[in-house]
Amino acid sequence: MNGSIGYVVGFIYNEGKNAPSLPYSIIIKFNDYTGVPFFSGVGQEKWVPVLASEYKWGEENMSTHFRKQFPLSLSWALTVWKSQGLTIKGLLAYFLGNEEKEHGLTYVAFSRILAIEQMFVGQGFSLDRLTNQISKG
Question: Global pTM?
Fold first, then answer.
């Protein structure tokens, strides 16, 4: 579902196909997955196959256009805006900059985690940032 965070663990290709062909599915490990397992191997209970989606458009009498892609977004980092609504269960490193870009942004960043031990703040931040700048809107 939207906002789920997982890790690519493998690819499944149709018989006789290999890279650079589009795979049949991409296998993603979702640590929070609680549904029925798709795979029976030990340690594979949280692996989920993600299939490509196809979108078609065009006029009836003209050649149809289509796009086939996997509904995945690769990321190595999230912005605070992108993380809104998420509860992050892993470790987070914040690089917040020197000033509050938008009212409450630092609060949103800090409220994504479950425990203070999950947080690292790169470059630190000043007391003024948390007491005065955070409240300016």
Answer: 0.57
Taking Cα atoms as reference points, which of 35, 73, 71 lies closest to residue 54?
71
Give how far Cα 37 sits from Cα of 9, 21, 49, 82, 88, Å.
Answer: 15, 27, 10, 29, 23
Averaged over 53-74, what is the pLDDT? Answer: 82
Structure tokens at 85: 């609504």
Distance in angstroms (rounded) separating the CA atoms of residues 63 and 114: 52
How would you write the chain as a 3-class SS string?
A: CCCCCCEEEEEECCCCCCCCCCCCEEEEECCCCCCCCCCCCCCCCCEEEEECEEEEECCCCCCCEEEEECCCCCCCCCCCCCCCCCCECCCEEECCCCCCCCCCHHHHHHCCECCHHHEEECCCCCHHHHHCHHHCC
pLDDT above 70 (res 1): no
